[in-house]
Amino acid sequence: xxxxxxxxxxxxxxxxxxxxxxxxxxxxxxxxxxxxxxxxxxxxxxxxxxxxxxxxxxxxxxxxxxxxxxxxxxxxxxxxxxxxxxxxxxxxxxxxxxxxxxxxxxxxxxxxxxxxxxxxxxxxxxxxxxxxxxxxxxxxxxxxxxxxxxxxxxxxxxxxxxxxxxxxxxxxxxxxxxxxxxxxxxxxxxxxxxxxxxxxxxxxxxxxxxxxxxxxxxxxxx
Length: 222
What we know:
Number of helices: 6
């Protein structure tokens, strides 16, 4: 369901209900400045209703095929409703509107309440449509809120995973530093051991030379 279409639909239903009330009340007014003013208001409102119908038509045709068919079916009902309102307006705007209304009432034997039954039925239908639209809007809002909550939850999970990865990276970095230090210590120890080997070798060599010299000296004096 398109929220844009629902917005236009809600505006049209409200406008249709208002037009129905105005047509009913204006039809009972005597000819004069007040009635002309009401007729002008109704004509302007009908123009607004035409604009809303065109907007709903454009929006419905831009939707996916599954939603498009349902929206166009609704639109046909609204167009039929608007045509009825326009016919009522023509009767109200007619110079003989009051006489025609009286004759129609006398011929049909209906009182004023019966004459406005169609308007009341249209108002009830408009209210029902408004309620349905309101429920759909509420449902859409609930879906949006649930989606937002799910998105926030996912973002929180991703943030926690990022923190875990950063912590693991820091640990690995610390291990790398420890390994580097151990390598340096082992290299230094290896150098010291090599140095000590040379020193011990030199001492042993000196002792061997001294022993050989002593033995040579003893044997040469006998």
